[in-house]
Fold AraC family transcriptional regulator.
Amino acid sequence: MDWVRTINDAIEYMEQNLTNEVTLADIAKSVNLSAFHFQRAFTLLTGMTPAEYLRKRRLSQAGSELAKGSEKVIDIALKYGYDSPESFTKAFTRFQGVSPAQAKKGEPIQFMSRYTVRITIEGGSIMEYKIEKWESMDLLVHAKDFNAETSEKEIPAFWNEYFANKEYSKVPSYLGVCAQNKTNGNVFKYGIGCKASDVKGVPEGFEIIHVPEYDWAIFKCVGPSPDAIQAMWERIYKEWLPVAEYELIPDVDLENYLPGDPASQDYVSEICIPVKKKN
């Protein structure tokens, strides 16, 4: 998959639908990705979520049209998907720093232009990774379904809840497991746990996720957790995927938290993603 072209195609779809109601699932479907996969790729490559991009572009366009002075606020509000002038005014003022009425009178406004994603060559830092073939395996996890649009805040809370409830006393908690293809739409499954072979039986509140045999790209992350993991995810999408001879398989990916002090500058963790060679 050409990630740069895919994200640019998604941006084109969003630009064509600034005045229409579109969901994350709609945008992802337009480029043949799962909602989860698209949300993560878009956010890592652009620095904002698809929802943020749409909101800022709509409010930018709305500002430009209001600045011309001929359109009514209520007409612009409805055009860009707001139910009332009040909700539009609140969002517009938060983004622009001035009210719609002030924009109509000529107050300066902000404008965020359309994004275009490109590959850039930077630095010379090395990404340490390896490709390994793993046999099929079962993972034992305490899992929950998450919405792709809200998971960024909800998953850290899920980890806090896991430790607060002392679930770690039942099962080692060295894996963060994201099962992208187990559910449809905007929802995916995320679990905390270990290999099923590490524990006898399935404790209450846990379940088995089966993972087929795959080739895996394993990326070494060095530094405090979760910052090092998050930084490596960004590098994978920005630096590795656009030029690698491999592409992602949209199934289960893993974050492997190795023994050690997670707050240490030399703490080592891993990101493991199933891959296949590009055709």
Notes: The longest helix spans residues 50-67. The mean pLDDT is 91. The chain has two domains: 3-104, 129-277.
